[in-house]
Amino acid sequence: MNTPQKGARAASSRANQDKKSFREQVGALKNLPKFFRLIWETSRSMTIGNLLLRLVKSAIPLAMLYVGKLIIDEVIGLIDVSGERDLSFLWMLVAAELGLAVLSDIINRGITLLDSLLGDLFSNRTSVQLIEHAARLDLAQFEDATFYDKLERARRQTITRVVLMSQVLSQLQDMVTIGFLAVGLIAFNPWLILILLVAVIPSFLGETHFNERTYSLSRSWTPERRELDYLRYIGASDETAKEIKTFNLSGFLASRFKELSDRYYALNKSLIVRRAVWGSALSSLGTLAYYGAYIFILFQTVAGAITVGTLTFLAGSFSNMRGLLQGIMTRFSQIAESALYLQDLFDFLELKPQITPPVNPLQIPRPIQEGFTFEDVGFKYHNSEKWAVRHLSFHLRAGEKLALVGENGAGKTTLVKLLARLYEPTEGRILLDGIDLREYDLNDLRHQVGIIFQDYVRFQMTASDNIAIGQISNISDRDRIQGSAQKSLADPVIQRLPDGYEQVLGKRFNKGVELSGGEWQKVALARAYMRDAQLLILDEPTSALDARAEHEVFLRFSELIAGKTAVLISHRFSTVRMADRILFLEQGQLKELGSHEELLAQNGKYAELFTLQAKGYL
Ligand SMILES: Nc1ncnc2c1ncn2[C@@H]1O[C@H](COP(=O)(O)OP(=O)(O)OP(=O)(O)O)[C@@H](O)[C@H]1O
User: What is the value of pTM for the model shown?
Assistant: First the structure.
């Protein structure tokens, strides 16, 4: 992790590099049609309803101003009448204005309602899309920090970008309203429109500039914000509370958080203050222009060139248009800014996985005949210069139980991830029944390989769901779930829970029950039995079990999966010796391969470590 100071410095210099020009901001508007296509696909009827309501709404201001003008002219006319006055036209006008006001209120409510319903649907739909797309991407992509930042920004978009929809629709609505009002103003004096533009353009440019700065700052701070989120999480989470207390870390975490967040606050504050100062100066300019035009209209009225009703109509139109134009321009830069953020969402959704199935994929042989062959396989993690494994050549026979042993970091987990095609070899190739693994259908391969990792996920869901995860299509098959739990020794653990198989596990949710490390492992192991896979991989999911339980688990495992191919990773040699053959890895290289007896006879590294551990047990 970077120090906060270094992080903040890096971020502010990145903010400058990242500075988006006005042109780029306008360019980002190209995302809007795509955005509206998504909204349209979310609900056609609501989108049409929304547009229609807004169209009607945009004609109302002009109509109200005009009725208002007629009312005033009528009143003035009536003042001059002596004797009996006929008020019927006046009442009609007042009724019309009242009707328009009520209609306007109802339409406003309707628009808010549709905006919020459509917004919710849109947000739900994009969240689902995000989850589905993330599942399509490669594991290696998730381990890349730049990718992670993109994911984080995209995730934010699904919730916050909903407002963009109402912004764009309001923008269109206001433009139509201005169109209506402009007709009235132009009829009187076209120069008034020009004054209006002079009044709002400076504010617009100011807004655009500051929006772009805000975007750059927020974007360049994504990694630091992620660090802040992380610090906030580890500083106040049930999972970390134990270590935070025993190591007395809260002061350390709080000061780290404070340093970083203060730096962001300072940068953000200076931007907000400058924005406020410039914003008020530029909008005062607009107010001046408005009063200039107002004085002009007043003189015209006094000179008798226009009626008092027309004065109120023009002054109202002018004031309305100024407000609308100002709104449109401010909103324009907000929309452009939102569209820039939207780019992150689309960028993420357009990311392509590197590991893809071939055009005409092969199905995995049923049953596998020969097994898997590693041919001089080497692999480097994308962010590392070091070979995690290299020059691996061996044959994993169909039906064989192979144990992988080696010290921490020797490359055992990497090897099994290559086998499951979670990663692609950097060099060499892996064959299945003599054909490159890349030729096979990826989904079929994933179905035929079951892996339980050492860092398996403790899903905060029911015990039943936690097991069904091994074969999610069987989530309703209680017999199969219970059968798997019996095989992995999880059944007695679950039977003891208050709600049995329906018990929510973990502490995150109400009524959740936490299990011990070993109990969790038994539940996770049941996932392997759920799956009807031809290759089963257990990557040390038994480390938290006591020696006797682990021995029993593996003994059952070998019996229960008889005939299937399996790869086991364990640091316990008493377990490892149960395998048909043992592959000893050292610094990513294959050092020894053979049965327990053969390796002991070789008297190499395996024999040395086995003897050491055996002595420890005695
Ligand atoms: N996601 C990753 N990015 C970069 N390097 C990694 C990554 N995962 C593992 N490595 C590196 O690759 C090497 C092999 O790691 P691997 O996890 O395969 O070891 P292992 O034998 O399974 O270790 P252990 O017994 O501790 O589980 C190590 O040097 C490790 O630092």
Answer: 0.70
Stated as kind and residue range, the H or E segment containing 199 is: helix 191-220
**Is residue 347 lining ligand 1, measured as CB closer than 6 Å?**
no
**Residue 293 confidence (pLDDT) above 90:** no
Nearest alpha carbon, ligand 1 atom 6: 381
Given a cut of 50, whether residue 618 has pLDDT beyond it is no
DSSP state string for 427-451: EEEEEETTEEGGGB-HHHHHHHEEE
> With contact defined as beta carbons under 8 Å apart, do 612 and 604 qualify?
no
- Domains annotated for the chain, with CATH where assigned, are 4-16+32-350 (1.20.1560.10), 371-615 (3.40.50.300)
Distance CA 555, CA 436 (A): 33
Question: Closest by alpha carbon to 522, among 503, 536, 535, 541?
Answer: 541
In contact, 192 and 318? CB cutoff 8 Å: yes
3-state secondary structure 329-381: HHHHHHHHHHHHHHHHHHHHHHCCCCCCCCCCCECCCCCCCCEEEEEEEEEEC
Q: Could you read off the pLDDT of 101-127 as tens digits, one per residue? A: 999 999 999 999 998 898 888 888 888
Site to probe by mutation for ligand 1, drawn from 414, 570, 583, 589 as the one with most ligand atoms within 8 Å of Cβ, is 414
Kindly state if the Cβ of 331 falls inside 6 Å of ligand 1. no
Instruction: Quote the ligand 1 centre to 423 CA distance (angstroms).
Output: 13
| Average pLDDT over every residue of 426-455 | 88
Tokens 């945009």 sit on residue: 58
Tokens matching residue 600 = 């002991």
Q: How confident is the model at residue 305 (pLDDT cuts 50, 70, 90)?
A: confident
Interatomic CA distance for residues 351 and 154, integer angstroms: 12
User: Tens of pLDDT along 217-230?
Assistant: 877 887 888 888 88
Q: Which value does ipTM take for this structure?
A: 0.96
Q: What are phi and psi of 363, to 5 degrees?
A: -80, 150
Percentage above 90 pLDDT, the chain:
25
* Angle at which helices 222-235 and 4-17 cross, to 10°: 150
569 Cα: distance to centroid of ligand 1 (angstroms): 13
